[in-house]
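Justification of resources, computational component.

The compute hours requested in this renewal are based largely on the per-chain cost of generating structure records like the one below. Each record pairs the submitted sequence with a full structure-token output. That output is archived, and it is also reused by downstream analysis tasks.
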Amino acid sequence: MVDEHPPGGGRPLRAVAFGGGHGLAAALSAWRHLTTDVTAVVTVADDGGSSGRIRRELPVLPPGDLRMALAALTGPGEREQGLAALLQHRLGGTGGLAGHSVGNLLLTGLVELHGGDTVRALDELAGLLDARGRVLPMADVPLDLVAQVERIDLEDRTRSRTIRGQVAIATTPGRVRQIRVSPDDPPVHPAVLDAIAGADVVSLGPGSWYTSVLPHLLVPQLRAALTATAAKVVVVLNLEPQPGETDGFSPEEHVSVLQAHLGGVPLHSVIADADSVVDRRGLLSAVRSCGAELLLAPVAELDGAPRHDPGRLSAALASVVGIR
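The structure output for this chain reads:
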């Protein structure tokens, strides 16, 4: 059992994890080994699948990434784990409900019952799950991502095109050169800003670099809060490039892209899987150019799958925040 108290502190470590999808779920699974006080700040730009259908039909935030974060923080009890499995279940068939996650529908229903209050709905569902932390949306309105994608046409290398939407960006051939959020200054819930201000450590990644990790740095209120916080800011690099988003990117290219989007946010540590880095000197140089320290550690699953192992990642996180 890991001691969850920071050096010299008498309370649990306060961690805030930014991201979305499976990457954020991996980070949360690691953080819950270290502390009972973790807040997930979740992307709300998903426009595909069940979440996309819901956000197009109803005035609510896309629920999918929020649901996944709740499932990752679910308590260990048999009843709670069973409920989490139900939330993650996707309905079968070929009708109008086919493909919807039960949790997406439940969370959307709770939001409607509470007059559009997403945070209240999330807190209520977290209570039912005995969640080991809190889940909050990164913005109070659904976001759209807008990217400039470099064409791969051999006869038109110098031109780029504008692609709108998370799914379209992730599936459009070419290399993303720039990304922004729309609206460009969305409202952020005060609970998110309070969590950042009171955090001991903030983590970004792993996850889809352009559509799950970087968008948090593009929201002015979030970036200002991250710039002002006294918390350590830690980045967890992906184990491999994301198909359709960062094809061919090396770890050091991921860091360089991150640096271009920091906008004054101080970076303290970068964690990378030791076996996934080919050019260690190049990565070290990129990390140092951000003013950060590099930790190379074994954080991947032992079976060789390109997934972060929660136990190994938690050990790396404990090292950078000074927990023994």
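The mean pLDDT is 92. The first strand starts at residue 14 and ends at 19.
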